[in-house]
Amino acid sequence: MDPSQVDVPPMKDLTIDNITENEFILLSDIIGLSLLVDSIDHPKPPASTEGTVLGPFHTHDAHTEANGTLISHDPQGEPCLVVCTVKDTNGKPVSGVKIDIWETDSSGHYDVQHADRKEPDGRAVMHSDDQGIFWFKAIVPVPYPIPHDGPVGKLLKALKRHPYRPSHMHFMFAKPGYDHLITALYLRHDPYETSDAVFGVKESLLIDLHQTKAEQAQKYGVPEGTKLITYDFVLVSEEESRKLREQNAMQAMEAQGRRMKLYKGLPVPDLD
Predict the structure, then answer these.
(1) What digits encode the pLDDT tens for the residues 127-170?
(2) Are 148 and 165 in contact (CB under 8 A)?
């Protein structure tokens, strides 16, 4: 596409006065900046879980719940059992990891998008157990459009891009000594899998939706045939991430023919 032929919204529509905090996040997401910053700040070695976009709908008021909790109370949603593990890059289970989880309701809206919201729903904070396991009951994720009635929506329209995100569920992991991980799981074969409005989909984060068998249903207290999501998350230590970040920085400088060294984690000219 010839950039000169794109009917971009007037810059006055993209000024601070006209863009809310969420619109700034969305703007960063739809141009790929959010994903780029994450890949630079939180590099991942092979076999570890990749990061993706945070989005504008994470909150800090989710209730802390125990394993097995029902986190979505949408009666129209299709029930889904989610069973996951958290391990380090050596395959050792990581216990006590704080895990933020959030997803939309069956209409494709997060709880904060409803004017009559009274308390958090479709979201929770959990912790991995001694075996690195966490599990909960939710609903099957659905595709939805990001808010597109403001400046970001105008920009998408000008670029002839749709505002839809594929079906997914958000996860955020935190524990001292480990690199902070913001990620999501995406349902394979979703109609928007290859055209996510915010470029969040990665091959390693695509999952297949299964069904619980009799033994699983009995173990987790759900009807047989309930939809099932399973995933093994792999966290990177802060030290692993730091080394990889510094290695990537030096390789980038060398590729530009620049003689640099690292000082407190930042590349500076090597004048020695």
Answers:
(1) 999 999 999 999 999 999 999 999 999 999 999 999 999 999 99
(2) no
Distance CA 21, CA 34 (A): 14
Q: Could you give the CA distance from residue 253 to residue 268 in angstroms, rounded to a whole number? A: 10
DSSP β-bridge partners for residue 82: 136, 229
The residue type of 193 is E
- Give the Cα separation of 21 and 123 in Å (integer): 21
The residue ranges of DSSP E strands in 63-201, in sequence order, are 79-88, 98-102, 123-127, 133-139, 144-145, 164-165, 168-174, 181-187
Of the chain, the end-to-end C-alpha distance in Å amounts to 47
* Contact indicator for 99, 129 with CB cutoff of 8 Å: no
pLDDT of 89 reads 97
Tokens of 11: 């810059």
Residue pointed to by tokens 């329209």: 157
Q: Enter the tokens of residue 254.
A: 């060398």
Rounded Cα gap, residues 228 and 206, in angstroms: 14
CA quadruple 233, 138, 188, 228: dihedral sign: positive
Q: What count of other Cβ atoms lies within 10 Å of the Cβ of residue 143? A: 18
| Interatomic CA distance for residues 231 and 69, integer angstroms | 18
pTM of the shown model: 0.89
Contacts of 73 (CB under 8 A, 6+ apart): 121
Tell me the CB-side half-sphere exposure of residue 33, using CA atoms within 13 A. Answer: 8
Cβ 52 vs Cβ 38: under 8 Å: yes
Q: Please name which of 152, 160, 151, 196 lies closest in space to residue 6, comparing C-alpha atoms.
A: 160
The residues, ordered by sequence, that sit 6+ positions from 134 with a Cβ below 8 Å of its Cβ are 67, 84, 85, 86, 99, 126, 127, 128
**51 DSSP assignment:** P
Residue 253 is encoded by which pair of tokens?
């400088």
